[in-house]
Amino acid sequence: MNSKLLIFGSKNFNNSINEVREYLNFSLIFFDFTAKSYSIDTSISAIIVDSQILDLDNLGKINMMQNKPILLLETLGNKKKLNCSDKILLPTSIEDLTSKIIKIITTYKFSLNSALKIKQYILDKNEKKLIKDNTYIYITEREAKLIELLFNEKKSLTKNYILKKIWNYSDNADTHTVETHIYRLRKKIFTKFNDEKFILNFEKGYII
Fold first, then answer.
1. Which pLDDT tens digit goes with each residue over 106-157?
2. Where in the chain is the domain with CATH 3.40.50.2300?
3. Helix 176-193 and helix 141-153: axis angle, to 10°?
4. pTM above the 0.70 mark?
5. How far apart are CA 159 and CA 121, in angstroms?
6. In the CATH scheme, what is the code of domain 119-207?
7. Residue ranges matching CATH 1.10.10.10 in the chain
8. Cβ–Cβ contacts within 10 Å for residue 77, how many?
């Protein structure tokens, strides 16, 4: 797995990681907590944190980076609270460390592909749910594809375009199929969330 990891740790910890760098199939970047400014490279796949460096200041900095999966490396008697994706107890083997890293990256990528944030909602494509706060409705496979298409295109879509993309119909197909599905979906959303503006329609078509 050709992934880039951001490493948070003491100088000794970072030196230890460096010693096994050749056995880890990852690009490693060490974070300097003395830096006055910091930002997360979008190409970073995961963050690895040594629990021994987690004072209140460092903990705050790491907790601001929750848009990436975090693996916490713990030692006996030194367990600090961090909102992380997974933990592993040191000392550990290269194989176990690699396995944990791959697991959190794979899980994170899967979660990105299975859920979309749309306005105040979450579209769960796996469970076929449209969620707002602690409330949800079940939707069909086609309804989920329709919502995703309207959201991803970022522009008004004609009935014929939607027919081609969702139903693979030709230009002269009956566009009432689109109208019927959108009507039913809007009715579900209004009944549960009292929202009439999730899907909007204009002269040129539909948009989210």
1. 988 887 788 888 999 999 998 999 999 989 999 999 999 999 999 999 899 9
2. 3-114
3. 90
4. no
5. 24
6. 1.10.10.10
7. 119-207
8. 5
